[in-house]
Every structure is written in C-alpha cells, then in structure tokens.
C-alpha cells in the first residue's frame, strides 16, 4: 500500500507540473498585452487610447511585473512562489491573491459540500429503490427523473429557475452574500438553489449507477446464499449487497468532488456568488497571469488529491482490493 501511495503521489506531481506548464503557455500565447491593458487603465485612454501610452510606460510596467524576463525564469519563479505560498498580488487590483483566496474559498467549498451531500443523500437511496423495485412504477419514475437530470445542463436549469421565479412567482434569489455565522438561515437560503441545480445531474448519475450495480450484485451467488440462510432482507441488502455496489458509485462521488470547484464557476456567475469561480473569471477576463495560474494550479491539486483519496477508499470498502 505504501508503494502504491508513493506511486500515485508521483503521478499526481507529474500531472500537476504538466498542467502548470500548459496554463503558463496558454496565458502567454493568448492574444493581447496585459501591460497595455494596465497602461490604458493608468492613462485613462480606454478603447482606442493606445496612442497615449508611451514605450517607456510599457517597459516600466513589464519591469515591475517581471514580464521582461525570459519565460523559463518567469515560470520557475512562479512555481517557487506557489510552493512557498507566496502567491503574489493581482496585476490590476494589487490585492494579495492568498488573501482573496482565503476569503472566497469558504463560499465555494460551502456550495460544493451542499451539492455533494444533497446528490449523495438522494442519489444512492433512489438507485437502491429502483433496483429493489425493478420494472415497477417507482423504477420507471426514478429512471425518468434521473434521465432528466442527465439531459438538462446545469446552467440552463439555473437560468430557467431564475426566469420562472421572476416572471411568474415574483421571486428572485438573494444576491447579497450573507456569512453563515451572521445569519445561518439567510445563508442556507442563498445556497439552497445553487446546490440543488449543481447536485441534480450528479444525483442522477449516482442513482443510475447505483441501480445498475445493485441489480448486478443482487444476482450474485453469495446473495442467494445469504437469503437461503434465512437472513432478514434488510440485512442482506444493507450488509452484503449495498457495500459491494457502492464501489462504482464511490468513483462517481470522487469525480464530482474533484470537479465541483471548477463547476462552481457557472453557478457563481448565475447566482452572483463571490467565490473563487467568480475570481477566476475576473482574472481570465483581464489576463491577470498570477490569479489565473494560481487558481488553475489549486484546481489541479484538488483533483489529484481527491482522486488519490478515492483510490484509497476502495481498499477500505472491499478488503479484496490490494495495491502491491
């Protein structure tokens, strides 16, 4: 197991470095000049105001931001700062990236936790009921419900929710962020609908996967043996069938948790949530190199760590699985 963990950590480190190289290159070859954008803000020229920007001003901005250094030097300096948690400042607002991250990440994590809990608490029982009641009314209703969750894009569902609420119910979601310690009910009401929309598609995936694996497990010989021994039906389902059927569902949960930070970008934009997804969009719009590179690296590390945790959970759920 130790060798497996070390091997997975090595793969994760290589993946993270490749992702950092990719995003560093993409930000540099993208059209536009960030120094020119900052200079336009300084001179107040706006669109078409390049004639007011002098060469000396551009060179001074590049000198201050380190953009005049060779690209390999820029990359390794940034990578060193990432490891030492010296994430620098935004090129435009000059605010500390670490400070903004620590202020915004609790909001994104709260949305992620709510959506994962909601989708898991609903998806797994729905899948079990569909499997136990195969080809019944409950099974058909659950399959239609889950198929709708897989078919409807989350951004479309969120947009329709807001439009229907505004035009037909005179309702709109809360747009002012309230901290959970200041007003728990207002905070929960603010996150409820984004969590429902985000978790619906994941819930549908978990339900259908749980139904398929549960049906397969219920047909195994050891389930028939447990039934023939006179064990109660609940014990057979809970202790023998569900634990083995959870392995593929655990993979789905791991994928959802690893992607939830990136998926929060859309929900935060639609529901005006000031999380790190919004922060990333703002940085991309202004080509703010430090902000974009730092947040993408954080997302990559999050995916690597969650995938590692998911793999290790397999050995706990199924003792037959060993990584030697």
The string of secondary-structure elements, in order, is HHHHHHHHHHHH
What is the quaternary state of this protein? single chain
**What is the name of the CATH superfamily of the largest domain?**
MetI-like
Could you say which overall geometry the principal axes of the C-alpha atoms support?
globular
Tell me the count of domains. 2
Low-confidence stretches: none
Percent helix, as a range, is over 70%
Query: How large a portion of the residues is in β-strands, by DSSP E?
Result: under 5%
Query: What is the architecture of the largest domain at the second tier of CATH?
Result: Orthogonal Bundle
Main sheet, how many strands, which sense, barrel? none
Class from secondary-structure proportions: mainly alpha
Strand tally is 0
CATH structural class of the largest domain: Mainly Alpha
- Number of DSSP helices? 12
Q: At the third CATH level, what is the topology name of the largest domain?
A: MetI-like fold
Round the Cα radius of gyration to an integer and report it: 25 Å
Could you give the distance between the termini? 6 Å
